[in-house]
Amino acid sequence: MKSKVVLVVVLVLMCVLNSFAQTAKGWDVPVSKNQNASPSNTHALIIGISAYKNLPAQLKYADKDAMVFYNYLIASGVSPQNIHLLLNENALKGNIWAEVEYLLDVAKRGDKVYIYYSGHGDVEQKTVGRKAYLLPYDSDTHSYVSCAVGIPDLKDYCATLSASGVQLIFIGDACRVGNLVGGLEGISITATLLKEQWTDEIKILSCQPGQLSQESKEWGDGRGLFSYELINGLCGKADRNKNEEVTLRELEMYLLEKVPEAAYPGQQDPIIETKSKDFVISYLTPEIKSLASDQSSNLLASIDLKGSEVVLLEKVNESVKESYRNFQMCMDTANYVSMPPSEWSSLYSDEQQAMELLPSALYFFNQIPNEPQNMMLLAFMKRNLSAQLMNELQNFIQHKDQMIEMKDDGKSRDYSQLFLNSLLDKLKSVSAQAAALKQLIGNEKLKKLGFYSKAIALECYDPTHFSTMEKLNTMNSLIDSALVYEPELRDLNYMKGACLARLNQFSAAKKYYYRELELNPLHSFTYGQIAAVYYLESKQDSIHEVLRSYVRAAKSIEPDQKRDAHVFKALYYVTSALLNMRMNDSARVYFDELVQMEMTEMDADQMTGMNFFISSYAATFGLCDLADEYYQKASASGNYDSSVLTSIALCHAGNGNKDEAIRYMELSLKHGDPVYYNVACVYSALKDEKNAVLNFESFLKKQKNTVPYKHILTDPDIEFLRTLKQFNVLMKKYFPEHQK
Fold first, then answer.
1. Which of 363, 392, 421 is the last residue of a domain?
2. 204: DSSP letter
């Protein structure tokens, strides 16, 4: 008859824990269910300390990790009376040694004993021997000798248990970062001593010497990474051959796959040392399997370093420390990534304004050299910055329709200018964040995270990436690689279609555009781009059909899905698209329906914007009174819109109302620098030859690049100006490259 196996699991969930070297001595461990002691012959001492009485370094989840292991043992059938749980203020030095003594008294040959410790480990600094300790709740940095649990002493007790025929399983997680007297060296020495072979025990440790055990609120709603995956493995995720048993070999393979992957770019490699890795550590039951998390560990969880920076900074120079402090300040204020210098001019008025925004978290991260003494600090900085960028980008993806905030520049309240600047600022920011995330963790990590294709799509949001043929071809190739991984990702097919359209590959572009509509039937920009392609192909019937299909799609959704808001948006975009293609009669049909709608689902800023747009469209259709009415509604918020004021001026000019035309034009000039082309348009509509030519020449001198050459030749608002001799003279002077 086989003797029962006594497992003494010392679960010391410590970052200090290292792999344990197994010696050749000891007895063989049979590989059958009979090897495990029955639950009634299993005992456990579980210790978890997050809040220390006297130490400056506090932990967050060590006590929770210990509690979860307690729940695992209960699910395994161990009697609560056999499990002694010491959490936080109950984990005094005296209580811990009393419980160890108790285990010596009650554990018999063939019994199983678990000792689990989750908390801090450190070394004594006052003696030459620098003895290593596990730190109880009442530890004091002045003298560990009198108030901490010496690892050599614990080793003696464990050896005594093993010698009496008890199988010891020691699980330790004591390598968590903290501002302790021994610093990183103290954590490493503690881990090394824990790794050493004591007798015949099984050791399961959270990491190697020189590494840190990580914890985050994003693992299991607040857990240590090692504990989180340890429990998942014991509860079935490590059962590779699906035989309802988890061996130490299977558990080791699982931990060495999951923990390092989730810890990257930091290093954390758990250790399992035992004589026989075929030993079955967990027999799976429905109760045990129910404890496994449904979610994999977050591969980019943010690590809280506050209060523990001293350990990571102890061997770096003052310049690195200053860069880290600036980095952390930027992280605290969500200043993660600055715009690339090559793009400053498109966002900011001058280089000085751009420089004021330059020192971002990424900037200060890049200031720290990749030198050995800095590597651990850089790993944690990289991880936390990457995690925040990932969170920002995920949030944008989920809520992008609501994330374009109007930002007052402190100089004007020109709605169109503020909106365009805010939109461009946000899109460039998102694109820069996606590019920074790729730089920090690389494409392979992004693919593991399932975020590679999303990062590519977000990078495409910056319109400057499509400004040259070289950039266009680069983005086209990147989008192709992203489609391989996520062919049904929203926006990605739209981006591919936009690339192909810019390359004049219209048939291929439409294929991707229509694919986007299959995935996202209310994607307004896609309908507009398809219509634009049909316009270039001179297919008017197709233009009308695709735009009508957008309105139909919006009207077909359920009322509780904000149908009215979607219909309003569709009518607005269709009106805008048709006006851009000079199909004013068709646009008027949709505009009339738009004006009749009552919008109750918009906030104040959205209503301001829509009132400005309706005013502008009304002016385009010659409905001056309606344009006046909606402009008054929009400007009641304190905003104005110089471009809409110019449109209303043109409307009155076209209707022969010179006084109102001049009044609205003067209002548009009152709020800022004149847009000379718009002023020229108004005077042209009024057939005022002198002022039309004067302002048109000012436009050509100062603002020529703001209006395309072809538009000048076809714009109906300057039809009168184009009949004048001076117009042809000015065009030859300022556009010699277009003259034959």
1. 392
2. E
* 0.70 surpassed by pTM: no
Q: Which residue has the tokens 């009376």?
A: 81
275-312 tens-digit pLDDT: 888 899 999 999 999 998 776 655 667 766 544 566 67
Find the helix or strand (DSSP H, E) in which 129 lies. none
Tokens representing residue 5 in the block:
């196996």
Same domain, 46 and 157: yes
CA distance linking residue 720 with residue 156, whole number of Å:
102
What is each CA distance from 614 to 275, 562, 602, 624, 629, in whole angstroms?
79, 21, 15, 11, 10
Query: CATH no. for residue 182?
Result: 3.40.50
Closest to 246 in 3D by CA, of 232, 257, 259, 260 = 232
| Helix (DSSP H) and strand (DSSP E) numbers for the chain | 32, 15
CA distance 727 to 736: 14
Give the residue from 392, 414, 437 where a domain finishes. 392
Q: Are residues 208 and 322 in the same domain?
A: no
Q: Name the one residue in this structure whose structure tokens are 């600090």.
A: 377
By the 10 Å C-beta count (0-12 exposed, 13-18 middle, 19+ buried), 704 is classed as middle
pLDDT digits (tens, 9 = 90+) for 112-128: 999 999 988 877 665 54
Residue 12 — left, alpha, or beta (φ > 0 → left; ψ -120 to 50 → alpha)? beta
- Classify residue 685: in a domain, yes or no: no
410: left (phi over 0), alpha (psi -120 to 50) or beta: left
166: which residues sit within 8 A by CB, 6+ positions away?
6, 8, 107, 108, 109, 110, 111, 112, 113
**Same-domain status, 186 and 315:** no
Would 468 be classed as within a structural domain? no
Integer-rounded Cα radius of gyration of the chain: 35
Domain span at 87: 8-215
Q: Provide the 8-state DSSP code for 400.
A: G
What whole-number distance in Å separates Cα of residue 300 and Cα of residue 541? 50
Q: How far is C-alpha 641 from the chain's CA centre? A: 35
Per the structure, the count of domains in the chain is 2
